[in-house]
Automatic annotation (TrEMBL):
The keyword Translocase does not apply. GO terms for molecular function: hydrolase activity. It comes from the Bacteria. It holds the Pfam family Lactamase_B. This is MBL fold metallo-hydrolase. Residues 11-85 form the Metallo-beta-lactamase domain. Keywords: Hydrolase. The keyword Hydrolase applies. InterPro entries: Competence_DNA_uptake, Metallo-B-lactamas, RibonucZ/Hydroxyglut_hydro. Transmembrane segments: none annotated.
Length: 401
């Protein structure tokens, strides 16, 4: 038996996957925001510990606030209170990018520049995490990034990859007892694009100093990516649901050109396929559609037992080609739609139209415009749908026997 918990994570992701009935193994993927951890996840982690079990694998898919802020809270508390044992952590940050680093020291002036950026980042995280912060608090408290907290806690960090990046080019498949995990994304090319983005950002700030091994660069890298939300810079044109009155209109919607996701941070997102006792589950993070299509196709799996669709149902991450190979009777859509208006109509339309002959369940952890639109009897009958919508105050449990 497999149990998947999809937590209310606002516009983010937080999933706990448990395998078996006794002496279970657990994979935790992302932690949403700080409130996600404190209000929902922490209680379940304590229950797992009481049973003598642990988190076998903790995956933080990429540096984005809706995936990582809760992870920072979790690891910070775990270091102090030993909430639960963690077997291994997968997370890519500055130290895993192939950046040529100068072995020398940086000047005091350069340190002050980085410390200023880190102070801004700490203030940002505290604000986004609903932590109290005074207007005068600008000092640097080292160790507030996830990377720093993982180092402090001495976790097995990317140990299956010999401490290198979680990348398909390094290792494609990892065995964890009775289960295995295939890495679908990222590859070294996607990580190289992220590296170039960050180095370009340093240049844009007219920081001409050499990048070194100094830990200040670890913190500055993580904070700068967290504070830069590319999606908010894009003028997004929504399709009005009120204009879609005929089911036939879906055929026109799905044929619209996909302006594919090019975000370097999303491209670095860890996407996986979990195999356990013949069951195959896809957790696709915020991955780019072209790399997901290629590597899912190469798995040779005809139908998946569960699919967490990429990037909260963004239309930029769901092509017709990708939808055609996402054959499943269970799809998870994790978002409240408040920040980026996800899921996009065109993404869900492609998914249900291409797979209209399959009986399928679509799980939403919050009610959104799109979940309401596909919940009509007409839509459910036409596309063989069952729509399960959470109330945003409790996790959704999905059982796979």
């Amino acid at each position: 038996m497999i149990n998947v918990k999809m937590y209310p994570a606002e516009n983010g992701d937080c999933f706990l996957i448990s395998f078996g009935k006794e002496n279970r193994n657990h994979i935790l993927i992302d932690c949403g925001y700080a409130d996600t951890y404190h209000n929902f996840l922490k209680k379940d982690l304590k229950e797992i510990k009481k049973l003598g079990e642990k988190i076998n694998l903790f995956i933080v898919t990429h540096i984005d606030e809706d995936h990582i802020l809760g992870a920072i809270e979790f690891i910070k508390e775990n270091n102090e209170l030993q909430i639960i044992e963690i077997g291994e952590v997968w997370y890519n940050c500055y130290r895993h990018l192939q950046i040529d680093k100068n072995q020398g020291a940086i000047s005091d002036k350069e340190k002050r520049i980085l410390q200023r950026e880190i102070a801004l980042g700490e203030s940002y995280i505290r604000r986004e995490s609903s932590c109290k912060i005074s207007k005068s608090e600008i000092s640097v408290k080292q160790g507030f990034t996830l990377g720093a907290l993982l180092l402090k806690g001495g976790y097995n960090w990317n140990s299956s990859f010999e401490g290198k990046a979680v990348s398909r080019n390094n290792i494609e498949k990892i065995e964890f007892g009775d289960m295995s995990v295939n890495v679908l994304s990222p590859n070294n090319k996607k990580l190289d694009i992220l590296k170039k983005k960050w180095l370009k950002e340093l240049t844009n700030k007219k920081w001409n100093f050499n990048v070194t091994e100094d830990k200040l660069f670890d913190d500055a890298f993580e904070f700068m990516l967290l504070m830069y939300d590319e999606e908010l810079l894009i003028d997004k044109k929504e399709i009005s649901l009120e204009e879609i009155t005929m089911i036939a209109s879906i055929q026109d919607i799905i044929q619209q050109k996909v302006n594919a996701d090019k975000s370097p941070t999303n491209g670095s997102s860890i996407a996986i396929c979990i195999n356990y006792e013949g069951k195959n589950l896809l957790f696709l993070g915020d991955g780019h559609p072209e790399i997901l299509y290629k590597n899912i196709y190469n798995l040779g799996v005809k139908e998946f037992d569960l699919v967490k669709i990429p990037h909260h149902g963004s239309g930029k991450n769901m092509t017709i080609q990708l939808a055609e190979i996402l054959k499943s009777n269970k799809f998870l859509i994790s978002t409240n739609g408040n920040k980026h208006k996800h899921p996009d109509l065109e993404s869900i339309a492609r998914l249900i139209y291409i797979n209209k002959d399959i009986n399928k369940e679509l799980y939403f952890n919050y009610e959104t415009k799109v979940s309401k639109w596909i919940s009509t009897e007409e839509m459910k009958n036409a596309f063989n749908l069952d729509v399960i919508v959470g109330n945003g105050s409790l996790p959704l449990n999905i059982v796979i026997n």
